Amino acid sequence: MSYSLNEIEAMCKRASRGAGLPWGLCEEAAKGTRWLASFGFPGPDLLVSLLELNDRLPAVDLSPVALQGIWRAPAGRLSPLIAGAAMSDCAIKMELGNIITMLEVDYPLLVVPFASGAALRLGQPVAVEWEGTRMVTNGKELCVQGNSEAILSSHAKRVECSAPAQMLSQSKPIHRAVVGDACWVRLGAFAQRTFAPATEASRLRGAGAGLTDND
Known about the structure:
It comes from Pseudovibrio ascidiaceicola. Pfam families: DUF3726. The protein has 215 residues and is of the alpha+beta class. Helix content is 40%, strand content 16%. It is built from 9 helices and 7 strands; from the N terminus they run E-H-H-H-H-H-E-H-E-E-E-H-E-E-H-H. It has helices spanning 5-18, 23-38, 43-53, 80-89, 91-95, 112-122, 148-151, 181-191, 200-204; strands at 2-4, 100-106, 126-130, 133-137, 142-145, 155-162, 176-178. Helix 1 (5-18) runs parallel beside helix 3 (43-53), helix 3 (43-53) packs across helix 8 and helix 4 packs parallel to helix 6.
C-alpha cells in the first residue's frame, strides 16, 4: 500500500519506541527510514527486521566499544542505527581524511541515512561502502552503485565511511512510498507496545456508560 513519508516516519518512530529504543534514537531511526523510502528502498522492512532481531537486547551490547580505530560491538555485531548515529557525530574525522570502519554490521543500508546527515554537516558528499556496494550522498541526493542483493543484505562484515566522495550520478527523493501489508503489521505490533494497557478504571472512564449510568 502507498503511504506518505510522514505516515512512514510516524509509524517507524512509534515502532522503534515500542522496541525499547531511546527517544532520540527513535527519531533518528524514523527519519532515516523515511529517507531510504524516499529513494525507493524498503527502509521500513529493514527497520522492522532489525527491531525484531534486537528486541529487548541491551543497546550497549550493540554499540561500538570505542570510537577510535575499528569499531566493534561487545555482542559481535553492530546496530546500524547506533553506529550510524555515532558516525554522523564523528563526521569531522572523515573531513580530516580518516575512514570510519565498522565490523559486523546488521542491515548496513540503514547506516546510509546517517551519512546524509554527516554530508550536510561537512558540506561535502560522504560514501558508505560494503561488500561490492558503494553509496554516496550529499544529503539531498543519492548515488547508488552495486546490485540489489548486496545493497539489501542483512549483514556486512565490514562497512567503511569516508569523505569527500564523488557523486557520479544522482537520484532525487520522491514523496510517497509503497510498504507491504505484512511489514506494516509487523511495525504495528511494536507500535502497539507504546499504548498503556487498559485497566478496569480506564475502561469505566471510556466511551459509553460502562457500569455507571449517569442519566
